[in-house]
Specification:
With about 160 residues, this protein is mainly α. The chain has six helices and three strands.
Length: about 160
Protein backbone atom coordinates (compact mmCIF):
# COMPACT_ATOMS: atom_id res chain seq x y z
CA UNK A 1 0.00 0.00 0.00
CA UNK A 2 2.84 2.38 0.90
CA UNK A 3 4.42 1.87 -2.53
CA UNK A 4 1.13 2.61 -4.29
CA UNK A 5 0.81 5.87 -2.37
CA UNK A 6 4.40 6.78 -3.26
CA UNK A 7 3.80 6.08 -6.94
CA UNK A 8 0.54 8.04 -6.97
CA UNK A 9 2.19 11.02 -5.27
CA UNK A 10 5.08 10.92 -7.72
CA UNK A 11 2.79 10.61 -10.76
CA UNK A 12 0.68 13.50 -9.45
CA UNK A 13 3.81 15.59 -8.96
CA UNK A 14 5.18 14.66 -12.41
CA UNK A 15 1.81 15.40 -14.03
CA UNK A 16 1.65 18.79 -12.37
CA UNK A 17 5.14 19.66 -13.57
CA UNK A 18 4.47 18.45 -17.11
CA UNK A 19 1.14 20.29 -17.32
CA UNK A 20 2.98 23.47 -16.32
CA UNK A 21 4.80 23.21 -19.68
CA UNK A 22 8.19 22.40 -18.22
CA UNK A 23 10.31 21.32 -21.20
CA UNK A 24 11.73 18.27 -19.44
CA UNK A 25 11.48 16.66 -16.04
CA UNK A 26 14.82 16.39 -14.29
CA UNK A 27 15.02 14.86 -10.82
CA UNK A 28 18.07 15.07 -8.56
CA UNK A 29 18.83 14.27 -4.95
CA UNK A 30 19.16 11.57 -2.35
CA UNK A 31 21.06 8.42 -3.24
CA UNK A 32 18.86 6.58 -0.73
CA UNK A 33 15.70 7.51 -2.61
CA UNK A 34 17.29 7.19 -6.08
CA UNK A 35 16.41 3.52 -6.80
CA UNK A 36 12.75 4.08 -5.95
CA UNK A 37 12.55 7.33 -7.93
CA UNK A 38 14.07 5.60 -10.94
CA UNK A 39 11.33 2.94 -10.90
CA UNK A 40 8.59 5.58 -10.64
CA UNK A 41 10.16 7.64 -13.45
CA UNK A 42 10.39 4.59 -15.73
CA UNK A 43 6.75 3.68 -15.07
CA UNK A 44 5.71 7.27 -15.72
CA UNK A 45 7.51 7.17 -19.07
CA UNK A 46 5.93 3.83 -19.99
CA UNK A 47 2.39 4.72 -18.95
CA UNK A 48 2.02 8.29 -20.18
CA UNK A 49 2.58 10.18 -23.39
CA UNK A 50 5.43 12.13 -21.80
CA UNK A 51 9.15 11.30 -21.92
CA UNK A 52 10.70 9.39 -19.05
CA UNK A 53 12.11 11.83 -16.49
CA UNK A 54 15.88 11.98 -16.08
CA UNK A 55 16.90 10.91 -12.56
CA UNK A 56 20.33 11.73 -11.14
CA UNK A 57 21.78 10.72 -7.77
CA UNK A 58 23.51 13.80 -6.37
CA UNK A 59 22.95 13.33 -2.65
CA UNK A 60 20.38 15.30 -0.68
CA UNK A 61 22.52 18.42 -0.16
CA UNK A 62 23.78 18.46 -3.73
CA UNK A 63 20.26 18.03 -5.05
CA UNK A 64 18.99 20.93 -2.93
CA UNK A 65 21.76 23.20 -4.26
CA UNK A 66 20.91 22.32 -7.86
CA UNK A 67 17.16 22.64 -7.28
CA UNK A 68 17.42 26.00 -5.50
CA UNK A 69 19.79 27.45 -8.13
CA UNK A 70 16.93 28.96 -10.13
CA UNK A 71 14.04 28.26 -12.45
CA UNK A 72 15.39 27.48 -15.90
CA UNK A 73 15.23 24.64 -18.37
CA UNK A 74 18.63 23.51 -17.03
CA UNK A 75 17.68 23.28 -13.37
CA UNK A 76 15.90 20.27 -11.84
CA UNK A 77 12.14 20.21 -11.52
CA UNK A 78 12.19 17.90 -8.49
CA UNK A 79 14.65 17.10 -5.75
CA UNK A 80 14.48 14.02 -3.56
CA UNK A 81 15.70 14.25 0.00
CA UNK A 82 16.21 11.85 2.85
CA UNK A 83 15.55 14.72 5.28
CA UNK A 84 13.57 17.95 5.53
CA UNK A 85 14.77 21.07 3.72
CA UNK A 86 17.18 23.17 5.82
CA UNK A 87 16.77 26.87 6.60
CA UNK A 88 19.76 27.85 4.44
CA UNK A 89 18.30 25.84 1.51
CA UNK A 90 14.94 27.59 1.94
CA UNK A 91 16.77 30.92 1.85
CA UNK A 92 18.67 29.93 -1.31
CA UNK A 93 15.42 28.94 -3.03
CA UNK A 94 13.76 32.22 -2.04
CA UNK A 95 16.81 34.23 -3.17
CA UNK A 96 16.70 32.56 -6.61
CA UNK A 97 12.92 32.78 -7.05
CA UNK A 98 12.29 29.07 -6.63
CA UNK A 99 8.92 28.28 -5.09
CA UNK A 100 8.59 24.79 -3.71
CA UNK A 101 6.35 22.46 -1.78
CA UNK A 102 7.57 19.73 0.51
CA UNK A 103 5.77 16.41 0.18
CA UNK A 104 6.62 13.65 2.65
CA UNK A 105 6.23 10.45 0.65
CA UNK A 106 7.82 8.01 3.07
CA UNK A 107 10.69 7.36 5.40
CA UNK A 108 14.12 6.03 4.62
CA UNK A 109 14.33 2.28 4.51
CA UNK A 110 16.79 -0.51 4.39
CA UNK A 111 16.76 -2.92 1.47
CA UNK A 112 18.15 -6.42 1.92
CA UNK A 113 19.51 -8.13 -1.16
CA UNK A 114 20.44 -11.75 -1.53
CA UNK A 115 22.68 -13.09 -4.27
CA UNK A 116 21.07 -15.83 -6.34
CA UNK A 117 24.39 -17.68 -6.09
CA UNK A 118 24.57 -17.55 -2.28
CA UNK A 119 22.55 -19.17 0.48
CA UNK A 120 19.06 -17.79 0.89
CA UNK A 121 18.41 -15.57 3.88
CA UNK A 122 15.07 -15.56 5.60
CA UNK A 123 14.98 -12.84 8.25
CA UNK A 124 11.88 -12.46 10.37
CA UNK A 125 10.48 -9.01 11.14
CA UNK A 126 11.38 -9.63 14.78
CA UNK A 127 15.02 -10.36 13.89
CA UNK A 128 15.29 -7.21 11.77
CA UNK A 129 13.68 -5.11 14.50
CA UNK A 130 16.09 -6.48 17.09
CA UNK A 131 19.09 -5.93 14.83
CA UNK A 132 18.23 -2.24 14.46
CA UNK A 133 17.13 -1.63 18.05
CA UNK A 134 19.23 0.64 20.24
CA UNK A 135 18.87 -1.92 23.02
CA UNK A 136 18.17 -5.51 22.23
CA UNK A 137 18.42 -8.99 23.65
CA UNK A 138 21.85 -10.36 24.44
CA UNK A 139 23.01 -13.04 22.07
CA UNK A 140 23.96 -16.17 24.00
CA UNK A 141 25.44 -17.97 21.01
CA UNK A 142 26.77 -17.10 17.59
CA UNK A 143 25.33 -18.56 14.41
CA UNK A 144 27.72 -21.51 14.54
CA UNK A 145 26.82 -22.33 18.16
CA UNK A 146 29.99 -20.91 19.74
CA UNK A 147 29.51 -18.83 22.88
CA UNK A 148 30.20 -15.12 22.54
CA UNK A 149 31.83 -14.47 25.89
CA UNK A 150 32.79 -10.81 25.24
CA UNK A 151 29.29 -9.99 24.02
CA UNK A 152 27.78 -11.79 27.00
CA UNK A 153 30.01 -9.85 29.40
CA UNK A 154 28.88 -6.55 27.84
CA UNK A 155 25.26 -7.64 28.07
CA UNK A 156 25.62 -8.63 31.72
CA UNK A 157 27.20 -5.25 32.48
CA UNK A 158 24.34 -3.39 30.77
CA UNK A 159 21.77 -5.34 32.76
CA UNK A 160 23.31 -4.30 36.09
Amino acid sequence: MKHIVQILCAVFLFSTIVSAKTPAIKIVGSSTVYPFTTVVAERFGQRTEYPTPVVESTGTGGGMKLFCAGVTTNTPSVTNASRAIKSKEKALCEKNGVSWIEIAVGNDGIAFANSNKGPKVNFTKKQLWQAMAAKGPCMEQSCDGQRLSKTNQRCKQKRL
